[in-house]
Amino acid sequence: MSAETAVTFLSRLMAMVDVLVFASSLNFSEIEAEKNMSSGGLMRQCLRLVCCVAVRNCLECRQRQRERVNKTSLIGGKTQDALQGVTASAATKTPLENVPGNLSPIKDPDRLLQDVDINRLRAVVFRDVDDSKQAQFLALAVVYFISVLMVSKYRDILEPQRETARSGSQAGRNIRQEINSPTSTVVVIPSIPHPSLNHGFLAKLIPEQSFAHSFYKETPTVFPENIKDKETPTPVEDIQLESSIPHTDSGIGDEQMPNILNGTDLETSTGPDAMSELLSTLSSEVKKSQESLTESPSEILKPASSISSISQSKGINVKEILKSLVAAPVEIAECGPDPIPYPDPALKREAQAILPMQFHSFDRSVVVPVKKPPPGSLAVTTVGAATAGSGLPPGSTPNIFAATGATPKSAVDSGSSSSSSSSSFVNGATSKNLPAVQTVAPMPEDSAENMSITAKLERALEKVAPLLREIFVDFAPFLSRTLLGSHGQELLIEGLVCMKSSTSVVELVMLLCSQEWQNSIQKNAGLAFIELINEGRLLCHAMKDHIVRVANEAEFILNRQRAEDVHKHAEFESQCAQYAADRREEEKMCDHLISAAKHRDHVTANQLKQKILNILTNKHGAWGAVSHSQLHDFWRLDYWEDDLRRRRRFVRNAFGSTHADALLKAAVEYGTEEDVVKSKKTFRSQAVVNQNAETELMLEGDDDAVSLLQEKEIDNLAGPVVLSTPAQLIAPVVVAKGTLSITTTEIYFEVDEDDSAFKKIDPKVLAYTEGLHGKWMFSEIRAVFSRRYLLQNTALEVFMANRTSVMFNFPDQATVKKVVYSLPRVGVGTSYGLPQARRISLATPRQLYKSSNMTQRWQRREISNFEYLMFLNTIAGRTYNDLNQYPVFPWVLTNYESEELDLTLPGNFRDLSKPIGALNPKRAVFYAERYETWEDDQTPPYHYNTHYSTSTSTLAWLVRIEPFTTFFLNANDGKFDHPDRTFSSVARSWRNSQRDTSDVKELIPEFYYLPEMFVNSNGYNLGVREDDIVVNDVDLPPWAKKPEDFVRINRMALESEFVSCQLHQWIDLIFGYKQRGPEAVRALNVFHYLTYEGSVNLDSITDPVLREAMEAQIQNFGQTPSQLLIEPHPPRSSAMHLCFLPQSPLMFKDQMQQDVIMVLKFPSNSPVTHVAANTLPHLTIPAVVTVTCSRLFAVNRWHNTVGLRGAPGYSLDQAHHLPIEMDPLIANNSGVNKRQITDLVDQSIQINAHCFVVTADNRYILICGFWDKSFRVYSTETGKLTQIVFGHWDVVTCLARSESYIGGDCYIVSGSRDATLLLWYWSGRHHIIGDNPNSSDYPAPRAVLTGHDHEVVCVSVCAELGLVISGAKEGPCLVHTITGDLLRALEGTENCLYPRLISVSSEGHCIIYYERGRFSNFSINGKLLAQMEINDSTRAILLSSDGQNLVTGGDNGVVEVWQACDFKQLYIYPGCDAGIRAMDLSHDQRTLITGMASGSIVAFNIDFNRWHYEHQNRY
Q1: How far apart are CA 8 and CA 1210, in angstroms?
Q2: How open is the CA angle 779-781-786, to the nearest 5 degrees?
Q3: Radius of gyration (Cα) for the chain, nearest Å?
């Protein structure tokens, strides 16, 4: 606290005391009790405060006198300079003058005490005079105070000054000498005799030991820990003040500030603590001390500043402590007062009892809180606290504050609080000692000097003496008992006599100066005063400690709040930054979505434009001309997959060409495979995991069931985009970086077109890549599979309703999981008997395999070998989207040479228990030796340096069809293979795979379903082999006359009993327990380590170059499928085991049943023109629905007895031994109105089988031919109309329904006289045409199919192939996709112009019946496979479910069975008595139901198996 502040504070506090205490009659006992103060404590506090102010005013008077003297007597220049340096402007401008609004209390500088101080002293004593004990104590203390001041003033007046100055400097030297000898215990007393020392009553009482104690014991323990580190440097002004005022330290006063406002006793220090020094030597000669001061200003300044900044820093060194110890005492001597530590040994003992033992006296020293006071003790550390009688040296910055470890009960309320600024009083206020205020109107020097001593005394003491007398008189009884002489006599009696007889001040002073009086006052009254001071000091210590504690707490709280503020601010800033980043990200995302939408719209628009162009310019389109089509139509394989995942559909290729610019590779461009592998080996990196360890890892802990993840719905986030993540679109030969965004209803992928890798991709390749700007609706998603990419489990493949799939690779597995949880819950679809849950999508291949029911179904022969292998490939991660992981199928035949292939000879089949490389014994020895003599430490040993499935081999197989041609050229620098290496002959490829040590290729699924892959339909120049054979179409084995034959026979071989018996062994090699580990070694089935899952963790390779090399290696070596099982795969059950099970597809038993099961004659004679046998047992009403020409329908109940016929225990007595039971409403003729459709059809329509469609659940019939150009939906339960569908411009002439899927959804196609067809969607859920029940009045068709020139008369739709094939009255049949594209026309021979019936099987056969008994069989890609002509006028045709057999029936009433592929007749049923108008097969393909012209239905036994080659050959 600065001096000005201290003075202002003191004066304000004093004014408050004047008002609240002296000018009021309040009783303070309650406050004292509340604050744990002893009785009268408040008044004692007031007395201390009054004394303090009084002494301060005394000092100010003295300062003014000194200034007066200084002005007159000029000291030498040197002294003057030093003084200016030290005191600067302190003399001219006092702090009090700096404080505005403070009027100086000094009215008369020559007086000892000012009027206001005298009045206050009087008020203290006489306020509570009734409280006798308290008043007596106060009176005694005041007597002592005034007496000492008076004697001191008297001495000052008597003393000549120069002598004092000399003695001061002498004393300084002595003290220095004494203090520097640590052994000295001699009390330091100035050497020159001093009147007050010789005669003064104080001198006698100095205990010699205590001074030494105070310096040598106490000071070192309490000195500031680091004087150097001035955290609170003393302002220059403070230093000036300290050095310029010699007499500043008082033993009273410092502890005086009661904060009465708070009702607490808050003692803090005030600046002018000059009390005790006055009490000991109130005669300090100003001039002398000034001179002695100037002798060593630097020595004074240093300690002054250092002591004033009582900082709590660490690590002071001894030298500095000594320096300060030396420096501080310098002031003592120079200023020349007497240092008296304790006036009385008893007091000293008392103090020692109160304080911790280490402090033997309340002597001046510097304060620092005691480190750890013993609990309960008072740790009082005094800074310059002199007791009443201790003549403290001026200028020495004592601080009477102390740190007490515990507040004494009587001292101060521990709960009292202080503002944080009080701590500054605590720490350093006393160092800022106040200078005296400059005299406002100085008296003339001469008068002041020339006055006599008596006059001076009279003038100085005239106001004080009466007060002393008054107290002596009023408290005479008490004082006379107290103030006793050396012999016990009462001194006050003579004093009172003296006082009464004379009002002379001089006499009173003389009385007080007498030895007896001095001794008595010192001994008796001094004790009271010391008690007063000690109490103040204790209070001060307690308060200081309390304030320090409160301040520390406040600081702690403030720091915590500050830290909280900082934290909150930082949090706020980070939230702002996060918010800004989120907004930026969101904006970026919006921009991205907008640009992506633009790209997508652009792509869609292009596709639409192309589609319209195709429709219009097609030969059958509006602008079409015959010439157009003749140029050259290029075709490419469509990405559409059927239910068995076969991609068979070819579509027009706008980017097609003959690749005339493509060159052929020269032989020198090929290194040997060994070289290639050697060059690759060098990349062996530290990221590679030991393969055996990996095997262990795979084997353990993977047995958990599929429930590996808790199913949890993802919360829809606030924004439109639920998830956005960087991803790679994986397409054949293209990996495109981009961003995958998922909203609540769609997936978007937007390729990063600025990516350098993307820019390098050949635009020709990109033309075949779908999904670069993709958008997929959630409603279209059918299955989601986890996939691997580059052997890392970070990819997903999503299968769509449009039967295509799209594959994405993500940064890590966590993202994969997030994406799956953002997509709809579809699992891996409905085909494999697994629940549709997200955890299934995230399941491992092994978990999928274990949980699925497909193995059991395969064993029971419910599914074919082809379907089962496709299932294994799919769950093991094989995909069409990554050519490195293309599905793998086995070679099954070994005979590619003979003219005829006998599938009953085991020798024509491959041994499926061995890998392709081990079939040739000689070659097997070579591979085994390679493994056993392995020398390369860098790479684990392997049998084969190439793989059975690589992108290179896949492209080589498919090089003749787009888009694989383009992919192949892109991968091979625009060149076709060298003709000798091109796939040119099936037999040659088989031979190579048996002889060539670097060829162990297995097949791809296309060998079993895609005849087009063997035909060079686009006319590529593939070169000439060394044997001068031109490489064009693939050379087929002699036993296959055309590619379709090869594919069909190959597939027959795959499904044959020989393969069924040992297929499980091949599965063990590729997907099972022989894939890796010791079993693989034993089976000669070990490949390069980089082909196995888990052999490398790409994320651990930080070097991008090394990582790229590793990725390239994985791409080159091929990838082994995920291991699905670690135990042998179960074999398939034999056909014979299953022969007695109902509904088995291959029942090789001779049933010797009659051909006709039953005939059912309806009461009406109207011809039965439509039969629908929806007989699946799970339907609510399995039935055969019949419709007659007169539109009377019947729902005839189906009894599923056929499968049991001929089975053991079968009895004809069983109820319903006939499969069909007539509709009771028709039989009883009771409810015919519920079965008759009364709405009128157009007269010109000829009613036939095409006019009706029955839904798959038998609940609704759709009928066309109405005059209002509509077709209508009726309920079979009530016969009521439920929906009318408009859309055509003319009468609807035919209807067809596709096969239906789960939920009963299917496509309905309507053909009309307006020469168009409309494709509609039947909702099995709502039982209406169209998706939305709200708009069922006006449903919109899915597509409009155009191209016919005449009325459409027949149509067939196959949802699995996505095709609609339709025939008009005249002209070719047209093939459309269900999206409305016209694919092609099926051109028959010149006499096949009038199609009447069409049947399409999902196997890709399209049988068309033309007028006059002509039949044609087309492949779905438009190739005419076979034709025939019969005599009958056929009215109904039907293909078996596998597409192999055709059933026909016509007007002559004969049912005939044909082999579909070549129209070879298989069987003729006995003729019926009426023409056949309609036909259908039961769901199990065992019963044929025909509708007759006579109004009856006939059920025939039919068993297609008996015409199967194996059945005929083996049974």
Answers
A1: 124
A2: 150
A3: 59
DSSP secondary structure of 795-847? EEEEEETTS-EEEEE-SSHHHHHHHHHHS-S-TT-STTS----HHHHTS-HHH
**What is the rounded distance in angstroms from the CA atom of residue 901 to the CA atom of residue 907?**
11
Instruction: Say which residue the tokens 């319903």 belong to.
Output: 1216
pLDDT over 90 for what percent of the chain?
40
Q: How far apart are CA 845 and CA 730, in angstroms?
A: 20
CA–CA distance, 303 with 305 (Å, rounded to integer): 5
pLDDT at site 1511: 64
> Are residues 731 and 805 in contact, defined by beta-carbon separation less than 8 angstroms?
no
What values do phi and psi take at 1285, rounded to 5? Answer: -115, 120
59, pLDDT greater than 50: yes
Beta-sheet strand order (sheet of 721-731)? 773-777, 746-751, 734-743, 721-731, 805-809, 792-800, 781-789
Round to whole Å and give the CA distance between 806 and 730. Answer: 8
Q: For residue 1392, what pLDDT is reported?
A: 85
Q: Which residues have a Cβ under 8 Å from the Cβ of 947 and sit 6 or more positions away?
A: 1000, 1087, 1088, 1091, 1117, 1118, 1119, 1120
Which of 1429, 1442, 1423 has the alpha carbon at shortest distance from 1145?
1442
Q: Give the per-residue pLDDT at 449.
A: 55
The DSSP element (H or E) to which 849 belongs, if any, is helix 845-851
Instruction: Quickly state the pLDDT bin for 37 (edges 50, 70, 90).
Output: confident
- Contact between residue 772 and residue 736 where contact means Cβ atoms under 8 Å apart: yes
- Give the helix/strand (H/E) hosting 1328: strand 1328-1329
| Each residue's pLDDT tens digit, 1357-1412 | 999 999 999 999 998 999 999 998 888 899 888 888 899 999 998 888 899 999 88
Sign of CA dihedral 434, 435, 438, 439: positive
pLDDT of residue 450: 60
Angstrom distance (rounded) from CA 583 to CA 254: 63
Instruction: Specify the residue for token string 């304000």.
Output: 12
User: What contacts 24+ positions apart, CB below 8 Å, involve 811-819?
Assistant: 811/725, 811/726, 812/1099, 815/725, 816/786, 816/842, 817/709, 817/842, 818/723, 818/725, 819/723, 819/725, 819/740, 819/742
Three-class SS of 297-310: HHHHHHHHHHHHCC
Task: Flag whether pLDDT at 1042 surpasses 50.
Answer: yes
Q: 128 to each of 43, 525, 791, 989, 1152, how far by Cα in Å?
A: 9, 20, 101, 129, 140
| Sequence-ordered list of residues with C-beta below 8 angstroms from that of 1211, at least 6 positions apart, any chain | none
Q: How far apart are CA 887 and CA 877, in angstroms?
A: 9
Q: Judge whether 439 and 94 are in contact, CB under 8 Å.
A: no
Strands 663-664 and 975-976: parallel
Up-side HSE of residue 33: CA atoms within 13 Å toward CB? 4
**Torsional sign, CA 908, 912, 916, 918:** negative
Task: Identify the helix (H) or strand (E) that includes residue 471.
Answer: helix 464-474
pLDDT at 283 over 80: no
pLDDT tens digits along 13-34: 888 888 888 888 888 888 888 8
The Cα 735–Cα 729 span in angstroms is 6
Neighbours of 781 (CB within 10 A): 20
Where helices occur in 36-107 by DSSP H, the ranges are 41-72, 77-87, 95-98
Q: Please, which residues bridge with residue 1468 across strands?
A: 1456
Angle, helices 161-180 vs 318-335, to 10°: value is 160
Tokens representing 738 are: 């981009």
Angle between helix 464-474 and 132-158 (nearest 10): 140
Where b means 16+ CB within 10 Å and e means fewer, 1235-1274 reads bebeeebbeebebbbbbbbbbbbbbbbbbbbbeebbbbbb
To which H or E segment does residue 540 belong?
A: helix 526-617
Closest alpha carbon to 214 in 79, 366, 61: 366
Q: What is the pLDDT of residue 494?
A: 72
